[in-house]
Amino acid sequence: MLRRTAAASGVAALGIIALTYGASAKAQVKPGTNEVHVFAGYLFGDDLTETQISGVTPELDDDFLWGLRYDYNFTEVLGLDASLGFSPNSAKRLPTGGDVDLDVTLLDIDAIWTFLPDSQFAPYLLGGVGWAFADLDSPIDGVVDAVPVRIDDDDSFTLNAGIGARWFFTDRGLMRFEARYRFIDKLVDNFDDSLNTFEGTISVGWVF
User: Which domain does 70 fall in, by range?
Assistant: First the structure.
């Protein structure tokens, strides 16, 4: 909880600074520039298994998400976005009735298409591929068709697509507001189900 609060507070503080100095913004998306971002937001989960375990279907919870992004702008319109995100999440709706910590790390490479690149407020679309790493604290034990089963974590590929906007508050500073749909092939190694998740994030970045 403390690391979630600290990360969210840090991004919020940077956002306040951005709003304070917003009037001096002149920057736009320029070819050959780099961007580094710190982001925070929320990940909305989905079912972890395709079948019920002891009469219930385990789910990935809705939880905090934070991380880092790097962008390279090949042109005013086309760029590359690399993202590393972490969600200190949990598996819920378990046979035991409690929750188990399920940390999720997301690594993505996306193409990003910017509209109105000469504007202080520049909307964009992005989409790409990546990898999802799951870390389940303890296995999920239960029964399927009267047979005892044990389910552990697993890693898999992920696809994502999103929409967002850059807001330049100085020549070198900007904020990003973004929503992504994410497909995750699986996060568990038995009776697995693909996940359809959603993310909403706000980030503060620097251009160089």
Answer: 2-207
Compute the distance between CA of residue 203 and CA of residue 6 in angstroms, rounded to an integer: 15
Which pLDDT belongs to residue 97?
87
DSSP 74: S
Task: Report residues of the chain scoring pLDDT below 70.
Answer: 1-27
CB atoms < 10 A from the CB of 146, how many?
5
Give the helix ranges, DSSP H, for the chain: 2-20
CA distance 37 to 40: 10
- CA within 13 Å, CB half, 17: 14
Q: What is the pLDDT of residues 65-80, one digit of tens each?
A: 999 999 999 999 999 9
The percent of residues in the chain predicted with pLDDT above 70, rounded, is 87
- Rounded CA-CA distance 8/25 in Å is 24
Provide the pLDDT for residue 28. 84
Q: Is 106:67 a contact under the CB 8 Å cutoff? A: yes
Place of tokens 């999802």: 132
Report the distance separating Cα 74 and Cα 66, nearest Å.
26
Number of domains in the chain: 1
CATH of the domain at 82: 2.40.160.20
